[in-house]
């Protein structure tokens, strides 16, 4: 039985990854801040370790075959690059160093699709395209780029595989995190939507991609975990249909988003935390689209529809009164 160490175990992707690993017969050691925060079921092949990324993990890394690093700072209201660098780069270096010292052979890093160049429906982004604006101005995305570059420089020491999921939707989104976008439209009489779009992926499929990469991922390679390129209007219309509602759909002019970005820039200069800023507002205006061909061809991923992802998320939120 292969032994895997996982960070970020209580998040949307982390929970789905652990469920998939256990189903596939792995023994999983998972780092959590609190054991009670883990949403999956108990399992004899799952060992939860309470602690944080700054702790000495070496005691738990003996005979581990693969380290899967999912934990990250993903909040979008932090003000400086340093706010992201501490977790998304410095801690990556720390846990990678511990994994190296303990003789682990394989290190999977969960990054973001936004470290890669996005594209259009006709010409979607892929693993070869270079990141460009507005994500070159995203502190979160840049901290992930820096971590990717560090790890790839050490691929001669340990097998490094980088996974780049797009926007994940699905069950076990307890905060909720990315699933908040569903609440933008769910149970609303008026739905205001930006004119851009993005790529969405079922969290189960992203988790499957991570687990398949444990077995099939090639050293030094990146894999987009992506499914459906949709405009925000198309996505919200799917939410409307699945939740059996018929709100009035109103587009948000790009000018309004631009002004909100300027307001956010000003607030940030006053050290006021806000999700608003020019790069974030620009991201809502563009087609942030990607291709999944590499993960399909090399990892063998069979992606589910985004309708299924929305249904699973809505059912989870309803069951857990997350609305």
TrEMBL record:
InterPro entries: Epimerase_deHydtase, NAD(P)-bd_dom_sf, NAD(P)-dependent_oxidoreduct
Transmembrane segments: none
Domain of life (superkingdom): Bacteria
NAD-dependent epimerase/dehydratase domain span: 4-224
Record-given protein name: Dihydroflavonol 4-reductase
């Amino acid at each position: 039985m292969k032994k895997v160490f996982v960070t970020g175990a209580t998040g949307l992707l982390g929970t789905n990854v652990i469920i998939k690993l256990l189903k596939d017969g792995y023994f999983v050691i998972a780092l959590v801040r609190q054991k009670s925060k883990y949403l999956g079921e108990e399992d004899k092949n799952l060992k939860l370790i309470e602690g944080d990324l700054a702790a000495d993990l070496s005691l738990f890394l003996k005979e581990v075959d693969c380290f899967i690093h999912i934990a990250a700072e993903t909040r979008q209201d932090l003000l400086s690059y340093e706010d992201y660098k501490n977790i998304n780069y410095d801690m990556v270096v720390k846990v990678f160093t511990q994994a190296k010292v303990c003789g682990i052979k394989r290190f999977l890093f969960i990054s973001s699709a936004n470290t890669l160049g996005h594209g259009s429906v006709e010409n979607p982004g892929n693993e070869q395209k270079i990141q460009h604006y507005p994500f070159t101005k995203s502190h979160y995305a840049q901290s992930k780029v820096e971590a990717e570059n560090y790890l790839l420089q050490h691929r001669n020491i340990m097998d490094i595989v980088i996974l780049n999921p797009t926007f994940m939707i699905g069950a076990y989104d307890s905060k909720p995190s990315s699933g908040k976008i569903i609440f933008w439209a769910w149970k609303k009489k008026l739905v205001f939507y930006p004119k851009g779009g993005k790529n969405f992926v079922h969290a189960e499929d992203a988790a499957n991609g991570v687990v398949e990469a444990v077995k099939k991922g090639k050293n030094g390679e990146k894999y987009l975990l992506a499914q459906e390129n949709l405009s925000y209007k198309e996505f919200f219309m799917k939410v409307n249909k699945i939740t059996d509602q018929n709100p009035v759909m109103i587009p948000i002019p790009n000018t309004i988003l631009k002004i909100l970005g300027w307001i956010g820039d000003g607030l940030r200069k006053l050290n006021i935390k806000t999700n608003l800023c020019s790069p974030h507002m620009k991201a809502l205006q563009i087609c942030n689209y990607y291709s999944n061909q590499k993960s399909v061809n090399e990892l063998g991923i069979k992606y589910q529809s985004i309708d299924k992802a929305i249904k699973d998320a809505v059912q989870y939120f309803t069951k857990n009164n997350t609305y």
